[in-house]
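Good morning N.,

You mentioned wanting to compare the apo and holo forms, so I went ahead and generated the holo version with S-adenosylmethionine. This is what I fed in:
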Amino acid sequence: KSTLYVVATPIGNINDISLRALDILAKVDVVAAEHPQVSRHLLTTHSISTKLISLHQHNETIVANKVLALLDSGKNVALVTDAGTPGISDPGAILVQRVRAQGYAINPIPGANAAICALSASGIINPHFLFYGFLPTKTGLRKRALIELKPQLCTLIFYEAPHRILESIADMVEVFGPQRELTIARELTKLFETIHAGTLEEVFSWLQADTHQQKGEFVLLLSGAETMDKYVISEQAKHTLKCLLIELP
Ligand code: SAM
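and this is what came out, ligand included:
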């Protein structure tokens, strides 16, 4: 049965790709890639010469027909994006829907994702998070989106572009107040990887003071509306629990 493989690729370090992903990329008949030249570099590095076609945000619907025709003729296709997991703030969902509707198999090949990578190294104890992706680019819409998110108890995860990083954090300070905790994860798995945490106002000043830190790719992790105290048992609560346990039969 013809299959569409949804293959995660590295978010920086070119070796962050699974053995299974490499095997699939070498075996399929065609790789549909967001930017074929970006993916060609990855494939060549790993000595893979599979044919690439372009599938991006603006041609996904049309290219989906092409992919369906390939699957109809018994070929297997892999979908990749420039970096990370397809369909996560990236194209892929329309193709997957169309392929599923035609009854073909869809196999995800898991791997890197910037949000999860950042969260895993953040030390944030809250087990709940909301992945928002990119905020609106216009400040009015961005502030409105942030105001809607303000009551959320879970960690809020955003992607942000370097030319908007300062203005987005400034909007966060305005909407959430200066004291919420922000973790900034920049250039993950790359040479200038930086993970920095502090209150919103601290992180804003830190970033403003160093233009080098304003370059590259960013994940922002903003703490939820409540403090994390509820996930850490206080000494007093431990004492109360101990007293209550003694009373139990
Ligand atoms: N599909 C990708 C994923 O699974 O993470 C996300 C693609 S989205 C178009 C690109 C955004 O992801 C960047 O603007 C940045 O916010 C984030 N990102 C990607 N790679 C990153 C990295 N190495 N370090 C920090 N953020 C990264």
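Residues 60-72 form the longest helix (13 residues).

Happy to go through it together on a call whenever suits you.

Best,
F.
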